[in-house]
Write the structure tokens for this entry.
Amino acid sequence: MTCYILAEIQIDDRSRYADYESGFLAILTAYEGQVIAVDEARTLLEGQAFGHRTVILKFASEVAALTWYESEAYQKLMTHRQAASQANVSIIHGLD
């Protein structure tokens, strides 16, 4: 079943966050993930937004998503994101 990762991110240090961005795509594609959307100007229809950047990633399955997320390469890279931002990150199951 297709799985998505939804991240709502509040970037506090753009320079440090750039260190995260510089290695992100190579690791994502190595695990066959895809970027579906990145938006810093979303239109909120209801509720309260967190952060100013929303990211949606696509994987073939929850196992694939977790394999990427828990990989040594991503965990090392993620330290830059965690140092430069706050985030809510969720797995969402598709309707295959």
